[in-house]
Amino acid sequence: MDGTAQQQAWSLLQESMTKEGRPYADVGQFKKWMEEGGFTNVVEKRFVWPMNQWPKDPCLKELGSWNLVNVREGTETFLLATLTRILGWKKEDVQVLAAKVRAELGDRRIHAYNPM
């Protein structure tokens, strides 16, 4: 995903959330944080949600189809408030970035996924 509009958008979202004092929570830290909070017998199950239908596995391919619709529909919304209000972007520039991200989302050569 390096060098893609998706990576740029994700980096900008992380930057804006950190600047706002609400940094992105790394899902890889959740179990540790729960244990530090006093919970015991914490069980962690990790999953990946593909960003489109790139996986060969039929279940992951279907999950990727659903995730693709979700992310495509929400891309501009995810970016607009944070990039304009926190990072000072113009609405039109956010729309251009969002269009690039949406275009890339369907590219099965990009094996992007969300860790869950």
Tell me what you see in this structure:
By secondary structure, the chain is mainly α. It has one domain (5-115). It is 57% helix and 5% strand. The chain has four helices and two strands; from the N terminus they run ααβααβ. It has a two-stranded antiparallel ribbon with strand order 1-2. The protein starts with a helix and ends with a strand. The model has no long low-confidence stretch (mean pLDDT 91).
The description of the largest β-sheet is: 2 strands, antiparallel
Domain tally: 1
Number of helices: 4
- Low-pLDDT segments: none
> Secondary-structure element order, as H and E?
HHEHHE
Q: Strands of the largest sheet, in order across it?
A: 1-2
Provide the structure class: mainly alpha
Report how far the terminal alpha carbons are from each other: 18 Å
Averaged pLDDT, please? 91
Helix percent band: 55-70%
**Shape designation:** flat
Q: Which tags fit this structure?
A:
single chain, 116 residues, mainly alpha, two-stranded antiparallel ribbon, 57% helix
Produce the secondary structure layout.
Layout: H1 5-19, H2 30-36, E1 48-50, H3 58-86, H4 91-105, E2 113-115
Antiparallel strand pairs: 1-2
Helix pairs in contact: 1-3, 3-4
Please sum up the structure shown.
The chain is mostly helical.
